[in-house]
Write a structure and sequence with these properties.
The complex is a heterodimer of chains A (263) and B (352). Chain A has 263 residues and is an alpha/beta fold. Chain A contains nine helices and ten strands. Helix content of chain A is 35%, strand content 24%. In chain A, a hairpin with a 2-residue loop joins β4 and β5. In chain A, α4 runs parallel beside α6, α5 crosses α6 and α6 runs parallel beside α7. The radius of gyration of chain A is 19 Å and the shape is globular. In chain B, 31% of the residues lie in helices and 19% in strands. The chains are: A alpha/beta (263), B alpha/beta (352). At the A-B interface, α7, α8 and α9 of A face α7, α8, α9 and α10 of B.
Chain lengths: 263, 352
């Protein structure tokens, strides 16, 4: 395994549910420390694709092709292997940040338990948590709070702090900033960029917000009807070729000085 | 603009009348005006020493006018909308429709208010009865608007067409249609009542980007064709820029800036408005990390001082620790800003 090989690589991935082909992706990869954006509308297959990486597809789904992570084949892998990867080396940050935490646990306890579950020894837990809080600029006092006492942005930072404490190599961010206020969304987006710098964390950023992804990602994949229809750097968006990309680009607000406002 | 009532004024936290933006006051339709004056909302059970959920000196809605309330969670924008609908009673100040306080509207006047002022809620999924077909929901709106007995099927058909839904959708139930179609159905039902003012609370949140644009286009078209007045509560500055001529920026319950939308977005005067503007990602504009607070920000924060100081890149002691008043902006009669440093900082660059 060389460092040049992609961290995550999907090849000829086909997901079918009850005979319907919902995902058909020839190739999608994320390199170490890379931020890749996966953009598409509802029903495009974004969430199924993420679920397949985590081995969490519905029972009636069939998967073909290969899903490799850091040299490990995840498709059809035994549960024990999946459990050691999922939520550990691959962290997940969801849209509903508060719902991802456990309502009856203080956020500090929630992080601590996840570290115990993944066999991090006690003395190391403390240093890892301290480092993670520092990395995501989270006030240690918030670890005493329960999820309902946290704002959406704070809960999202707690979830990301856990990813840092677990030394996740890859964060799967599924609409992780969609429910946040715009100023908080910008702060969380900045956090992903910082973590790439400081921790070398790769991010697969799944979103319907093309403009946000364009500002953050090294590469953008546009998904429609289960397939990647266009791919490229942020430049893709200045010269979109595919109809879906063009629609997504035009749908974005322009606040520039030439934008129209009612008079 | 009419004066603020004396008794309301004395209870106002600002302790004095603040200048209202001029030049945005041009609707002749006096009877259909929805006006909030010296509004103060404190929720029961909250600490009386804490800031109220909302303090809003002056807000005027009328057919043909469009006003946006923007700000983040906890800024008071939904509270303002509820007070304007009369579903919460302000702790001080008044909301009047056609010159009468909402809690004094009786009989025909009350019915007229409920017909003319229609809310479009944020939760599209919860806005329709899951057991009722979309056609039945629209027909119910028509009956509520006093149109019972008229050609209901014809009205439903016309409204579905007006909001861009196929006629076949009338027989469907909410769970059988897409989110965008559901929002169109909610709008059709509101139109069935015969409104003159629409109060929209985040009408496009949760919808796909391309669907959002089509809903905004619909609202824009309805506004023009029906001469509706709009109040848009949103954190989506793109929607605000598109639909509203005036914008009020709220931060933790108070107005920090208001003025014409275009001027306000192009050249924000309040650091919070600039931060909001900067946080909106735009294609072709490199990601701009939000500015952090100034090094001295923590020492500036005081209960009566600027509420944004803790996050403000321009906060300085002792200026920002003292009470902040809404003051007019030189050379822009429509603009007011609540920042003691505004004259010195000038127009803030929204992009850097």
């Amino acid at each position: 395994m060389t460092d040049d090989a992609p961290l995550l690589s999907l090849r000829d991935l086909v997901i079918e549910i009850r005979g319907r082909r919902l995902v058909d992706v020839a190739e999608l990869s994320v390199a170490r420390g890379q931020i890749v954006g996966l953009v598409g509308e509802s029903g495009a297959g974004k969430s199924l694709l993420l679920s397949s990486i985590l081995g969490l597809l519905p029972a009636d789904a069939t998967v073909r092709g290969s899903i490799t992570f850091d040299g490990l084949e995840l498709r059809g892998a035994p549960d024990r292997l999946l459990r050691s990867v999922r939520g550990h080396r691959i962290a997940v940050v969801l849209q509903a940040a508060r719902a991802a935490l456990t309502p009856t646990l203080r956020s500090g306890t929630w992080i601590e338990r996840a570290l115990v579950l993944h066999h991090v020894p006690a003395p190391e837990r403390r240093t890892r948590i301290a480092h993670a809080l520092d990395a995501v600029r989270l006030d240690p006092a918030l670890l005493r709070r329960y999820p309902h006492q946290l704002s959406g942005g704070e809960a999202q930072r707690v979830a990301i702090a856990l990813a840092v404490a677990l030394r996740a190599q890859l964060i799967l961010a599924d609409e992780a900033t969609s429910a946040l206020d715009v100023t908080v969304q910008a702060e969380v987006a900045e956090l992903f960029r910082e973590l790439r710098q400081t921790e070398g964390t790769a991010v697969l950023l799944v979103s319907h917000d093309l403009a946000l992804v364009a500002g953050l990602a090294d590469r953008i994949d546009i998904i429609a009807d289960g397939s990647i229809v266009e791919r490229g750097g942020p430049g893709v968006l200045t010269n979109p070729q595919h109809r879906v990309t063009r629609e997504l680009v035009t749908a974005n607000p322009t606040l520039g000085r030439d934008a129209e406002t009612p008079r | 603009m009419s004066g603020v009532r004396g008794d309301a004024l004395r209870r106002s936290p600002a302790g004095g009348s603040t200048p209202s933006p001029a030049g945005l006051d041009r609707s002749p339709d006096e009877g259909l005006r929805l006006v909030a004056r010296a509004l103060l909302v404190r929720y029961p059970g909250t600490d009386p020493a804490a800031h109220p959920a909302l303090a809003l000196d002056d807000l005027q809605l009328a057919p043909g006018r469009s006003v946006a309330l923007v700000g983040e969670s906890g800024s008071g924008k939904t509270t303002a909308l509820r007070a304007l609908l009369g579903v919460i009673r302000p702790s001080a100040g008044t909301v009047e429709y056609g010159g009468t306080a909402l809690d004094r509207l009786r009989g025909a006047a009350a019915r007229d208010f409920r017909r003319a002022v229609q809310p479009i809620q944020q939760d599209v999924d919860g806005a329709l009865d899951p057991r009722q077909s979309i056609g039945a929901a629209i027909a119910e709106g028509q009956r509520a608007g006093g149109g019972a007995g008229r050609d209901t099927a014809g009205v439903v058909e016309r409204l579905l067409d007006e909001v861009g839904l196929p006629l076949s959708l009338a027989r469907r139930h909410p769970h059988e249609v897409s989110g965008g179609q559901r929002q169109r159905a909610v709008i059709a039902r509101a139109l069935a009542v015969g409104p003159r003012l629409l109060l929209l609370d985040e009408p496009t949140s949760g919808l796909d980007a391309t669907v959002q644009v089509r809903i905004l286009e619909l609202i824009e078209r309805l506004r023009a064709q029906r001469g509706l007045g709009l109040l848009l509560v949103s954190h989506n500055l793109g929607a605000v820029a598109r639909l509203c001529e005036e914008t009020i920026v709220l931060y933790r319950g108070e107005v920090v800036e208001r003025g014409r939308t275009r001027a306000l977005l192009d050249a924000p005067r309040h650091p919070y408005t600039a931060a909001l503007r900067r946080s909106v990602p735009e294609i072709g504009v490199p990601f701009r990390a939000p500015l952090g607070p100034s090094p001295g920000a923590a020492s500036v924060v005081s209960r009566d001082g600027c509420r944004f100081a803790a996050r403000c890149p321009h906060a300085v002691a002792p200026l920002c620790g003292s009470p902040q008043e809404l003051v007019p902006v030189v050379n822009d009669a429509a603009r007011v800003v609540r920042c003691v440093r505004a004259p010195e900082l000038g127009a803030l660059d929204p992009l850097t």
